[in-house]
Design a protein that fits this description.
Blueprint lengths: L4 E9 L6 H9 L6 E2 L3 H5 L6 E2 L12 H6 L2 H16 L10 E6 L5 H14 L8 H5 L3 H10 L5 E4 L5 H14 L5 E8 L4 H9 L29 E9 H6 L6 E10 L12 H13 L7 E5 L6 H15 L7 E3 L2 H4 L6 H15 L1 E2 L15 E2 L4 E2 L6 E8 L3 E8 L2
Parallel strand pairs: 4-5, 4-6, 9-10, 9-14, 10-12
Antiparallel strand pairs: 1-7, 1-8, 2-3, 6-7, 8-15, 11-13, 14-15
């Protein structure tokens, strides 16, 4: 028998705020998290891009000093978001053998890895920290949450580029359906605002170069979009069976209806311009939710603000919904947060859950001249969603041709 799976806790640290509620409020207010980078290494390395969407609150303001010393920033963000989500869920009493983690990252501990390489070259092998390997491991963020909450039903890490944390949510749904756990903390984190990733993304012409106007650099669907803005942070969702949630009197934000994962098998960085596999992920996610295409009330799009990516996603959306697409409000929240890479799907899923819970679609900022080849109904100011039963999907697509879609229903 299919179980109802629900969201009972949320947590985030993002370019918009240090908590989920702060991030949501700033998103609805139309704020941008993109700011100039105030570091010596920006000038020293002569970076062509001098801004990013850094986390609004430094982990050092929240975590104990020993935690910041022994965790890569990607794990620090994860721990902050995971703890907030757990507290928001009421810090449930659960058998540790029935508590699991499904986490994700796109790049992992890049700061630890590259700092250790600098130390090795400049100061020798004896000065490389013994915690270097545990800190740089991609599974480090999930492990940090799992050890903090004593989760013993399994800690899994998905690494599928920018689709990672949406895929983690799909995995959490499947694991709960299979009865492998009662509660799962699912989400993703990223901390890659470092000169090497910035230089590499800029080299492939993926980043916006609007150094003189960072706040308006991320502009999904705009005819003048020129690339994404690198972001950082984490988001976590507490996911459990409805039966378990009701039994403990938990507040329920929304129902998780599952999702789908496909792959383009087309190109390592470019999306399939026809969007056939991305379309199949959306169709499968909606079908798995037991819904029809006409039931979809809201879409949180992947929409990175790249010239190629935005139109490829539009082609996939049109392939799926046809004329129905014209009546579905679409939000592109990376305009405000920047692109959190492996953490993007989690923060956008969190925003989708809150959109259903509060019945308001968040705005897409910086859209001043919509690309006529992408005729979507883009939400540009907070828009009320209708009463009644609402269904929404959140899309994530990543390098390597990864496609992941997750579906939620209002409660």
């Amino acid at each position: 028998m299919t179980k109802k799976i629900v969201i009972t806790g949320i947590g985030a640290t993002s370019p918009l705020g240090g908590t989920a509620s702060e991030s949501w409020s700033a998103l609805l207010a139309g704020e941008s998290g993109a700011r100039p980078l105030d570091y010596d290494w920006v000038a020293e390395t002569q970076l062509p891009v001098t801004f990013a969407a850094q986390a609004r609150v430094s982990p050092s303001e929240i975590l104990a000093r020993h935690e910041t010393k022994r965790l890569d920033p990607s794990s620090q963000f994860a721990l902050i978001a995971g703890r907030e989500a757990w507290a928001d869920a009421g810090s449930p009493e659960v058998d540790p053998d029935r508590l699991a983690v499904d986490w994700s990252t796109g790049i992992g501990g890049v700061w630890t890895l590259l700092d250790a390489w600098d130390t090795l070259r400049e100061r020798g092998p004896r000065r490389v920290l013994p915690m270097t390997v545990p800190m740089l491991m991609p599974n480090g963020p999930g492990a940090a949450i799992g050890m903090d909450l004593h989760a013993r039903a399994g800690i899994r890490t998905v690494v599928s580029a920018c689709a990672s944390s949406t895929e983690a949510l799909v995995n959490a749904y499947d694991r709960l359906q299979a009865g492998h756990a009662d509660i799962i903390i699912a989400g993703g984190s990223e901390a890659a605002i470092h000169p090497l990733p910035i230089a590499a993304f800029a080299s492939m012409q993926a980043l916006s170069k609007r150094n003189d106007d960072p706040a308006r650099a991320s502009r999904p669907y705009d005819i003048n979009r020129d690339g994404f803005v690198l972001g950082e942070g984490a988001a976590a969702l507490v996911v459990e069976t409805e039966e378990h949630a009701r039994a403990r009197g938990a507040r329920i934000y929304a129902e998780l209806l599952g999702g789908a994962v496909t792959s383009d098998a087309y190109h390592i960085t470019a999306p399939d311009p026809e969007g056939s596999a991305a379309a199949r992920a959306m169709i499968t996610a909606i079908r798995n939710a037991g819904a029809e295409l006409g039931d979809v009330s809201h879409i949180n799009a992947h929409a990175t603000s790249t010239p190629v990516g935005d139109i490829a996603e539009y082609n996939a959306l049109r392939r799926v919904f046809g004329d129905l697409l014209d009546g579905i409000p679409v939000s592109a929240t990376k305009a405000s947060t920047g692109h959190l890479l492996g953490g993007a799907g989690a923060i956008e899923a969190l925003f989708t859950v809150l959109a259903l819970s509060d019945r308001v679609a968040p705005p897409t900022i910086n859209l001043t001249d919509q690309d006529p080849s992408i005729p979507l109904d883009v939400v540009t100011s907070p828009r009320a969603l209708p009463s009644g039963d609402l269904l929404a999907i959140s899309n994530s697509f990543g390098f390597g041709g990864h496609n992941a879609v997750v579906a939620f229903r209002s409660v």
